[in-house]
Amino acid sequence: MDKGAKGSIKDRRFIRVENVSFPIEYKVKDSNQKFKKAKAETIGEGGLLLILPELLSLSTNLTLKIYIPKSFLPSSEELVSINAEATVVWSESQKSQGKDEARHGVSFTKISMDDFAPLRNFILLTNWMKESYTEEGKNLPPFIS
Length: 145
Prior knowledge:
The chain is an alpha+beta fold and 145 residues long. It has a single domain (20-136), classed as Thrombin, subunit H (Beta Barrel), CATH 2.40.10. It has one helix and six strands. It has a six-stranded antiparallel β-barrel. A hairpin with a 2-residue loop joins strand 2 (36-44) and strand 3 (47-52).
């Protein structure tokens, strides 16, 4: 891609990995509601693309639990829980496989360094793996599509 092309890596503030799938739990910040299950399809140092069972308003503040693989070893299914706060910056309703869902772009507003470090490592390693596997024509690990 040209360095001046719209959407190029140089246009982005943060590194991100698209077409991943991992679980998250969310709730509206400072609410008494219980955490609800959802999934993330894009992860970046600045935020996530979430698939939620409901459409949230712009600027809704969320408390998140993000579950990423602890290890990239094939036999490892252990997940690390990362706590963060985020704000909805865009949303759109969609129908997927007969279910009503909503896509949300959320931007992190608060994340501790202890939680940010494994998140960043996951993003960097996943990005490197996708590039390496693609170049070598190998199958990607199951959490990367």
